[in-house]
């Protein structure tokens, strides 16, 4: 029986290490790409030994997958969940645009939007990491399409594409030039797509 607390302690430490390293990996992915994640770099940024990281994750692909999972958790908490209290349709779409803009302004990730950065990096790839990146993007687009459908859009997929394109452009502009001009334009232009379905 005395071994149980020690085992629980090891598990808790392993979980804490996993969360710390996964978040650091997600941060790195927005500035250097998922391919820029290295065990040495993570060790330097987190203070966790290389052997400690590999004990928890096993290999670099597992770390990359954990980075995507952590970014998904953050995206849900920061962008999506705040909008769910709004009515489905145009109100929720507006709330999503507001929370997405706030997510970038708050610099939740050092390199801007994780979804945008990794979608470009893994666009032509296959494998578990590419699938995870693709699924993350698909979830976002599905959410937008569903809300546009509720709003009465005759082509929810096209409207979701327009909104996503504006937001991706706003993110790229902000990261390249370090100003919020592109972000403000993206919010206004994406809002214009939503505005077409607002009840008068």
From TrEMBL:
PROSITE patterns assigned: HTH_TETR_2
Location of the DNA-binding region in this protein: 38-57
Pfam families: TetR_C_13 (PF16925)
Domain of life: Bacteria
Keywords assigned by UniProt, alphabetized: DNA-binding, Transcription, Transcription regulation
Domain HTH tetR-type: 15-75
InterPro entries noted in UniProt: Homeodomain-like_sf (IPR009057), HTH_TetR (IPR001647), Tet_transcr_reg_TetR-rel_C_sf (IPR036271), TetR_C (IPR011075)
Protein name: HTH tetR-type domain-containing protein
Taxonomic source organism: Mycolicibacterium mageritense
Organism classification: Bacteria, Bacillati, Actinomycetota, Actinomycetes, Mycobacteriales
